[in-house]
């Protein structure tokens, strides 16, 4: 095999799957210390984010370390002419699969007994994504308005593992091609790193989610490690990174430690990340690794026994800590208490050591030739189990959860996709940004409901009411249902503006119901803009002779409705008794908004107003569960039962007003 001339044939035994790196002559304890800093930063950030705002950059440190170590092995094997794809991927399976299989299996086992169907459905998809090393793509695809909070995704952290393994699908192939064409490995790594970094910087503003999850915008971090590996194995090297003078080593270590510390302390979730900010932890890591074990900081700090111990268990600790914190969040229906989070971290450390000692090491360094096949088969089985849970909607018939099946259904958004498709076809809507529902798509509409998801969550009740009196309701919209709101590149708002025009211009539509989750006021620039837009909207509809009904929003809950439901086998769940919030707290949420609405109602006396709050609340409490029915599916959206309940009250109010009008007519 032809190899890169810049890389000498090395007589050093490569770190293959049957070699324990911790006893290898070339083992570097300082790199394990660096791993420890990375994993402890991530764990601390996830458990107590305010203590270390940039702790999440520990993942970027892992990327550089991984790129350095794996590329070192690959370059050495190419230099000896001993590289094979089979041996490389067998080592990856032995290294990655054992701990990962154990953690994912335990997560699913707990989820089977404790999670509600929608939660287990999502866990099943994430299990499938984790087993296939495409978690980053799954999470990328989930981002959206109704996406569940990150804290409720126990396998969220597997996105970084997916990035690594996707990189290692292509990197060995590219190195093999470069070796056969006698192309410099270092030049290849540096060129690809620059390209990937450019993609990262280009994506971070326009496509932040893609910039975070895409392997194309993350590969440069692993490639920095690869460049360093090539430099340290090349006779010529890179003087800036390979100068062996003690002063130069100490300077690199000090600069690297400073950059790493700045990243951990200064970068926050509010920054556009990775972008340029990711250079702090990644370049810092490169400098620390290049300094070598003899540099004072690496020798005295990174090679400390405690740090090295945490470094050895860093992989299973990374795998265990997040599911424990996430499940605690799910069970508590909110952020767990500080003692509970601390306990979860302590348990993660214990489980990580047990996993490293009794699972990872025996499987990684065992002599059985069937290990790889068994691990691959187990991962395939786990993927199939995850797929089963996903395709079966979280297996709602599980015996463990049947007692609360009725309440669990209330947590899921009910969607009539066939009706939506028929409505979109009728109006020629051909994009995902346009949405509508219609009681009878074959008939002309007589009532239009316009708004965002806070109109949608009362649409079923209103569809039922208006159908009962012979009217045909159509629901339009996805964003704020007001004219003259700048879309500013938001295609949903642009589509909503077009649908407002449709409601205005359709002659058969006599009644328009407006409902939205907006917060108007008379002070802030955006609040005033919303108020002006609402005023213009009411003016246009009333001027066109439409009967307008303005629906107030529902209260925003200070807790997740899931807190009202008992989870099987989890003693601390269903702690929200009574399942309600103080009415005074609900009424104090948006006084400025309701002051604007009151003024608009005086300005447009012909506009009818409907208030859901009096029907959800009594004198003291606003009820989330009423007469055994869960009325909310999340903190600010009604459940299907809540939708029908408000629809019923709307119908009663309309009937009462009609009776009053009839009485006045008779008089």
TrEMBL record:
Residues 30-357 form the Acyltransferase domain. One of its GO terms (cellular component) is membrane. The chain crosses the membrane at residues 33-52, 58-75, 96-115, 156-178, 185-207, 219-238, 250-267, 273-290, 302-320, 340-359, 371-391. Keywords: Acyltransferase, Membrane, Transferase, Transmembrane, Transmembrane helix. This is Acyltransferase. Pfam families: Acyl_transf_3 (PF01757), SGNH (PF19040). It comes from the Bacteria. GO terms for biological process: lipopolysaccharide biosynthetic process. Residues 423-651 form the SGNH domain. GO terms for molecular function: acyltransferase activity, transferring groups other than amino-acyl groups.
């Amino acid at each position: 095999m032809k190899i890169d001339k810049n890389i000498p044939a090395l007589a050093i035994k490569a770190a293959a799957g049957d070699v324990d790196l911790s006893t290898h002559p070339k083992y570097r304890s300082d790199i394990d210390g660096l791993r420890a800093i990375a994993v402890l930063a991530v764990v601390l950030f996830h458990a107590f984010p305010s203590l270390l705002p940039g702790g999440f950059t520990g993942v970027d440190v892992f990327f550089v370390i991984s790129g350095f170590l794996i590329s070192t092995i690959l370059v050495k094997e190419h230099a000896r002419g001993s590289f094979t794809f089979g041996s490389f991927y067998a080592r990856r399976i032995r290294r990655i699969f054992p701990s990962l299989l154990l953690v994912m299996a335990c997560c699913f086992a707990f989820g089977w007994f404790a999670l509600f169907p929608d939660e287990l459905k999502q866990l099943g998809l994430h299990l499938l994504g984790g087993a296939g090393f495409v978690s980053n793509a799954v999470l990328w695809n989930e981002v959206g308005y109704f996406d569940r909070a990150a804290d409720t995704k126990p396998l969220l952290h597997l996105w970084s593992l997916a990035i690594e393994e996707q990189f290692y699908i292509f990197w060995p192939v590219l190195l093999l091609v470069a070796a056969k064409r006698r192309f410099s490995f270092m030049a290849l790594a540096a060129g690809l790193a620059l390209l990937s970094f450019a993609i990262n910087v280009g994506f971070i503003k326009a496509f932040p989610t893609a910039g975070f999850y895409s392997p194309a915008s993350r590969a440069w971090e692993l490639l920095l490690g690869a460049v360093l590996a090539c430099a340290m194995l090349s006779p010529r090297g890179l003087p800036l990174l390979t100068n062996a003078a003690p002063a130069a080593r100490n300077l690199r270590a000090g600069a690297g430690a400073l950059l790493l510390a700045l990243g951990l302390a200064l970068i926050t979730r509010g920054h556009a990340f990775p972008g340029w900010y990711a250079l702090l932890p990644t370049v810092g890591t490169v400098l620390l690794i290049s300094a070598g074990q003899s540099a004072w900081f690496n020798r005295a700090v990174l090679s400390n026994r405690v740090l090295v111990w945490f470094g050895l268990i860093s992989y299973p600790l990374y795998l265990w800590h997040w599911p424990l914190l996430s499940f605690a969040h799910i069970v508590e229906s909110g952020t767990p208490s500080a003692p509970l989070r601390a306990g979860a971290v302590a348990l993660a450390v214990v489980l990580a050591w047990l996993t490293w000692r009794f699972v990872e090491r025996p499987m990684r360094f065992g002599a059985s030739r069937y290990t790889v096949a068994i691990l691959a088969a187990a991962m395939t089985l786990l993927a199939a189990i995850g797929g089963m849970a996903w395709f079966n909607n979280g297996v709602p018939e599980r015996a463990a959860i049947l007692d609360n099946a009725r309440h669990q259904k209330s947590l899921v958004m009910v969607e009539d996709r066939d009706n939506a498709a028929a409505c979109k076809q009728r109006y020629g809507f051909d994009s995902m940004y346009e949405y509508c529902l219609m009681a009878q798509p074959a008939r002309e509409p007589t009532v239009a409901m316009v708004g965002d998801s806070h109109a949608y969550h009362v649409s079923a009740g209103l569809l039922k009411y208006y159908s009962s009196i012979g009217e045909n309701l159509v629901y339009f919209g996805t964003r704020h249902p007001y004219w003259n709101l700048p879309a500013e590149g938001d295609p949903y708002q642009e589509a909503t503006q077009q649908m407002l025009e449709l409601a205005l211009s359709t002659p058969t539509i006599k009644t328009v119901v407006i409902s939205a989750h907006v917060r108007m006021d008379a002070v802030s620039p955006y609040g005033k803009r919303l108020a002006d837009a609402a005023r213009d909207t009411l003016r246009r509809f009333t001027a066109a002779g439409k009967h307008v009904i303005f629906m107030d929003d529902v209260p925003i809950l200070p807790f997740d409705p899931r807190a009202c439901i008992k989870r099987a086998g989890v003693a601390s769940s269903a702690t929200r008794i009574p399942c309600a919030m103080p009415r005074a707290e609900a009424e104090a949420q948006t006084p400025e908004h309701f002051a604007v609405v009151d003024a608009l109602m005086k300005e447009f006396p012909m506009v009818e107003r409907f208030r859901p709050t009096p029907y959800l609340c009594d004198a003291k409490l606003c009820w989330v569960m009423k007469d055994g029915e869960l009325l909310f599916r999340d903190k600010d959206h009604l459940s299907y039962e809540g939708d029908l309940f408000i629809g019923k009250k709307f119908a009663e109010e309309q009937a009462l007003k009609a009776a009053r009008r009839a009485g006045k007519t008779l008089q």
